[in-house]
Amino acid sequence: MTPAVEIRNLRKIYSGGVEALKGIDLTVPVGEFFGLLGPNGAGKTTTIGITTGLVRITDGSVAVMGYDVVRQFRQARRHIGLAAQELSFDWFFAIEDLMILQAGYYGVSRKVARQNTDRLLDTFGLSGKKRAKPRELSGGMKRRFQIARSLVHDPDILILDEPTAGVDVELRHRLWEYLTRLNKEGKTVILTTHYIEEAEKLCERVAIIDHGKIIAVGSPAELVSGMDKDGMSLTVEGWNQDAAKALAGYRFDFTDGHLRVYTARPELQLTEIINCITSAGVTVQDVRICRSTLEDMFIELTGHGIDE
Fold it and tell me: What is the DSSP pairing of strand 258-262 with strand 80-83?
């Protein structure tokens, strides 16, 4: 089957010599919820800009539903709905009119455009604001309108560039629910984000990008499976050599009253480990199960946090 998006050896050098992309390769199958995860300045927005025709390619190729985004740009763009990171509206039209106009750019009839507009405004809780101008909307409403407008021509692929940046937690979770439902209905969703939790919760697969290079691709579970950091963290008193000997069969670290025991099955071995150390005279004050995360993997691969 033709992929939704196929990127091959993609490079982008901006004027001044800044190399934003350094030969990346990505394939996003039809129907997948795919995440592009990385810090600000990693190359996420440049990748999206090239895919949607907003940024020129230096070298390499991008195809959308089999159409080259340079040579067959009209066909490629019909398949894409883009909700950009920066809000960009004509501030002098009502949002209902802006959506109908947007649909018209893609050849959608006025009748169908109005039906799609009414449905999407209702879905995003904006029906009561259909005659409002963008400047009259709250920040959260503007973000919802941005996504609704990107869907008005019923594209096969929805691309969202940092869609929840700057929004409150409640709206973020509401958007997550809607995007998950949209994907289950058959839309391919491509999400750029620097929120670890967002990528872990929403995406079937994630590509980690840093300094213009793809450094890992896989499902969140696959990416963290080799981290070997699952286990438990215990706050203890009375640590001694007998306790250390009792844990000889485990890999562990102890520093200033904090014991970290590494095991792939912490829930099953919790009782055994506690019994081992309490039998040696150690008092356990607190226990917490620990799981490897995408952030752990990102730090291990790049040497820095995602917000650095």
Answer: unpaired
